[in-house]
Design brief:
Length: about 550
């Protein structure tokens, strides 16, 4: 008797932060990096090594952007992370002797001491073995995970107006990935899951002609017809990308809806069921895989998810100086000073309940679809940082699915190789942002950022034309332009996440670029000034393709 093909779960984690090295310490700069690295990337990696030791394979698809790879490879940052983790251990001691909190809060000091001293020891072990990049590459070689790459500085590609710069961002980002991972990635997590088909580009520098009830702008189109993003991906050897569910559902004829609400599982044969396998984009060989919101939103959504359970730790109930967050969610309507004390054992028990619940959800979706796929995609930072217990939940889920004879985990690359897609669709312009369009990156408040980016592109082309300027200055102009293009800056303004910091970063990179361009044009480059700027902004490390795009008739540049 033949067995039913198991339903497949592709867990996809997106490991990304903007370039934060030497750009502030607290609360947004390097503190943000250390929080993500120390409480998410490290414990997730430790979990993956534990699962590898248990013989688990094809556990997750792990996206690592070039900006993350550059920063975790930096020895000074790695040393400072050790100091930061040591500081968390010391904070546990402060909590032990704190005289203004209840005894049960002080008692949590031992829990935190064990947690952070363990992370510090693991960090030191990882560094002895070559750092996170070496461990991630080894896990890929062992078949535990698939590594995804991405463009050099995570630009929002649907609104980029220069195809040469899109290609350059991809070329330099993929080359960077190949140097540490041992080969170019087959797949990428496109920044913000953004997609644009062939056609003219929406002009983010212009006022919207209309804005719908969700804040999605209708923008005038500018310039000539450009290739669809899949054409760029194909040219760089990319075989698969991640998009959001509405991108495929709308392409398949599904209706518009409130995408902040978790949908019911799609009935077989409906447009919504398109998310249960890959789709070839247009006439290309590039496959799009979409996250299934009916599953993914149980974990994290704009309105709900497991992290809001009453037993989980509340990240924002900090209690003040000298304390770790030591209160649980309790009731989301309560202010922080009325929350109940965190109970680690009850929270740990809840992770098992929630992992089992999602296994049941997967059965509800996949039991009528033998051999089909659910993609559950999240920022890696969710696990351990935003959701304190998330790593434990992730481990419980992977083990539960792997031990279930009718379910299995897979990487996206493995799925594509074993089950090559045959369906083709023309995809709409889209993202995973609010209302699934450009609303998270384009508003009246962010328009000056897009205008500054266009001015900087024009200034860089003028200054570098014909190979002008010494190599160091040329490289630094390309770096500043690439850093200016990061999708994080408009997102932080639009979504209210440290908008002042984002505005400062845009102004800073633009100022550096224009100073360098003016110096090149006047033939008055100060090598010491260039070296000082480069010491602060040393990413991307290799901008060969970016320089060639900015000055196609010039001399290019060495690394």
């Amino acid at each position: 008797m033949s067995r039913r093909a198991p339903g497949e779960l592709a867990l996809v984690l997106h490991t990304h932060l903007p370039y934060l090295r030497h750009h502030g310490v607290w609360p947004v700069g390097e503190e943000w990096l250390f929080q993500a690295w120390g409480t998410s990337w490290l414990p997730v990696t430790r979990l993956l090594e534990e699962l590898a030791g248990e013989g688990r394979r094809e556990v997750v698809t792990l996206g690592v952007t070039p900006m993350v790879a550059h920063q975790v490879a930096d020895q000074r940052l790695a040393d400072d992370l050790g100091t930061w983790l040591g500081g968390q251990v010391w904070r546990s001691e402060e909590q032990r002797w704190h005289d203004r909190v209840p005894d049960d809060v002080r008692a949590l000091s031992s829990f935190y001491w064990r947690r952070f001293s363990g992370l510090l020891a693991y960090h030191e072990d990882v560094q002895r073995r070559g750092g996170l990049l070496a461990v991630w590459a080894q896990l890929q070689d062992a078949g535990v995970l698939e590594l995804l790459g991405g463009p050099a500085t995570h630009p929002y590609l649907p609104l980029q107006t220069d195809p040469a710069l899109i290609d350059a961002q991809l070329a330099d980002g993929l080359a960077s990935h190949a140097r540490w991972a041992g080969g170019s990635p087959r797949g990428i997590w496109a920044p913000e899951m953004g997609y644009r088909p062939r056609g003219r580009v929406a002009d983010a520098t212009a006022a919207a002609t209309a804005v719908d009830a969700h804040g999605t702008p209708t923008l005038p189109r500018t310039g000539p017809e450009l290739p669809g993003l899949e054409e760029h991906y194909a040219a760089h050897g990319i075989s698969h990308v991640l998009v959001d569910a509405p991108t495929l559902i709308q392409a398949a004829g599904g209706r518009e809806r409130d995408w902040t609400v978790r949908p019911d599982p799609a009935a077989p044969g409906t447009p919504e069921s398109v998310v249960h396998d890959g789709v070839l984009i247009g006439d290309s060989d590039v496959t799009a895989y979409a996250r299934d919101l009916s599953v993914a939103y149980h974990v994290w959504s704009p309105t709900a998810g497991y992290p809001g359970n009453v037993w989980y730790r509340d990240l924002y109930a900090t209690g003040g100086y000298g304390l770790h967050p030591s209160w649980r969610v309790t009731d989301r309507s309560l202010p922080p000073d009325r929350k109940a004390t965190y109970e680690p054992d009850r929270a740990a028990a809840q992770t098992l309940i929630d992992a089992e619940h999602l296994r049941g959800v997967l059965h509800g979706v996949l039991d009528d679809r033998p051999g089909e796929l659910v993609v559950a995609a999240y920022d890696t930072e969710l696990f351990g940082h935003w959701w304190f217990e998330g790593v434990e939940w992730l481990g419980a889920l992977v083990r539960a699915v792997a031990d279930d004879p009718t379910l299995t985990t897979t990487t996206v690359a493995s799925r594509r190789e074993r089950r090559p897609p045959t369906r083709r669709l023309e995809l709409p312009e889209s993202s995973w942002g609010f209302a699934k369009g450009h609303a998270s990156w384009v508003t009246d408040q962010t328009r000056p950022m897009w205008q500054e980016l266009r001015r900087a592109e024009a200034a860089a082309r003028r200054a570098l034309a014909g190979g002008r300027g010494p190599s160091g200055a040329r490289v630094q102009v390309a770096r500043e332009l690439a850093l200016l293009a990061s999708s994080d800056w408009p997102f932080m303004v639009t979504r209210g996440n440290s908008p002042g910091y984002a505005a400062e970063r845009v102004a800073d990179h633009a100022d550096q670029l224009h100073r360098l361009c003016h110096a090149i044009e006047r033939d008055a480059v100060d090598d010491a000034e260039v070296a000082a700027i480069a010491a602060r902004d040393d990413a991307p490390a290799d901008v060969t393709a970016l320089l060639a795009a900015l000055d196609p008739a010039g001399t290019g540049a060495a690394r």
